[in-house]
């Protein structure tokens, strides 16, 4: 049984880490970009951001004044139990979000869409978002654990959607991808360079979810388990960096730190696609809470496991274990 109080205290730590400590995989990618960038203004921005990250960590201050909109991804092992149930888990995450808004501090970005009501704590109707995943027990880790993942993603722009059709094919996907990156750069709709996530398939809402998760829940350098999609990811990263834009849309050659693609089965007549830019301040933090009270921090969300990408009706590994 995992205490709700432990969930809340761990979540508070994660909120602090996400706002201040850039994940090492993204930092490495950004440093590689800085080493190869030859655009004057783009190089200046990259150097300034790297210096800002060091200052933020040293001073324990948020790395960017706009701390985005905090959200949670929760993955539960199949045998996990929470003291007080799932309502207690959600209450713990909402409390941690409100507390961190005051203590980190985070900018209170959440308001009512019509009345502009602001509780000054990033909590309200539907906020923060909490998305769930589940995972079978394994011999290595068992199943009595909960992964808490917080992502502070920009909440205004850097996202686009289009309903493509099967006949558009890969070339149509490339066109929309490049259209989106050009709009992000020219109109200031995203802070580049960024991790770009592409969602292909699903219904419209799932397509958007796939793209957002691809941009925020995969580390730089990871590749889709489907070799053909992995090849597309390499190609799309190179393609995105060939359009002549760099940091913050200035002239340069490092607009995309990495490109991640996730897919879902869709209606036979369509091919929905979404494109998401994470942020120059790539803010995420992860911890696994075990039933015995241990808390393990890491930076890889490890969200897209074979189970999350399963295609079969039943999960073969789970079925074998049951037998």
From TrEMBL:
The keyword Magnesium does not apply. One of its GO terms (molecular function) is 4 iron, 4 sulfur cluster binding. The keyword Zinc does not apply. Keywords: 4Fe-4S, Iron, Iron-sulfur, Lyase, Metal-binding. Pfam families: Fumerase (PF05681). Transmembrane segments: none annotated. InterPro entries: Class-I_Fumarase/Tartrate_DH, Fe-S_hydro-lyase_TtdA-typ_cat. Residues 10-287 form the Fe-S hydro-lyase tartrate dehydratase alpha-type catalytic domain. Its EC number is 4.2.1.32. It comes from the Bacteria. Belongs to the class-I fumarase family. This is L(+)-tartrate dehydratase subunit alpha.
């Amino acid at each position: 049984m995992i205490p709700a109080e432990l969930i809340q205290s761990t979540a508070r730590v994660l909120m602090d880490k996400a706002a201040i400590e850039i994940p090492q995989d993204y930092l490495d990618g950004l440093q590689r970009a800085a080493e190869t960038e030859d655009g004057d203004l783009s190089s200046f921005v990259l150097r300034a951001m790297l210096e800002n990250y060091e200052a933020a960590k040293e001073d324990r201050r948020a790395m960017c004044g706009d701390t985005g909109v905090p959200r949670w991804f929760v993955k539960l092992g199949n045998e996990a139990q929470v003291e007080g149930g799932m309502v207690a888990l959600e209450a713990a995450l909402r409390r941690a979000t409100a507390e961190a808004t005051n203590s980190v501090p985070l900018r209170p970005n959440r308001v009512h869409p019509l009345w502009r009501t602001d509780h000054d704590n990033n909590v309200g109707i539907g906020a923060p978002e909490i998305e769930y995943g589940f995972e079978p027990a394994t011999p290595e880790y068992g199943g009595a654990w909960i992964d808490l993942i917080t992502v502070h993603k920009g909440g205004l722009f850097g996202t686009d959607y289009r309903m493509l059709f099967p006949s558009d094919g890969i070339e149509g996907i490339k066109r929309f991808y490049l259209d989106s990156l050009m709009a992000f750069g020219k109109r200031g709709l995203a802070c580049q360079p960024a991790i770009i996530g592409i969602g292909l398939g699903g219904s419209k809402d799932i397509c958007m979810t796939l793209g957002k998760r691809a941009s925020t829940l995969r580390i730089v350098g990871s590749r889709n388990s489907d070799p053909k999609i992995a090849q597309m990811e390499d190609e799309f990263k190179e393609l995105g960096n060939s359009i002549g834009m760099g940091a913050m849309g200035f002239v340069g050659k490092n607009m995309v730190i990495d490109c991640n693609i996730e897919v879902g089965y869709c209606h036979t007549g369509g091919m929905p696609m979404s494109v998401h830019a994470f942020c120059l301040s790539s803010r995420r933090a992860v911890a696994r809470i075990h039933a015995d009270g241990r808390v393990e921090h890491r930076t890889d969300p490890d969200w897209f496991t074979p189970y999350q990408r399963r295609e079969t009706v039943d999960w073969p590994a789970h079925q074998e274990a049951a037998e």
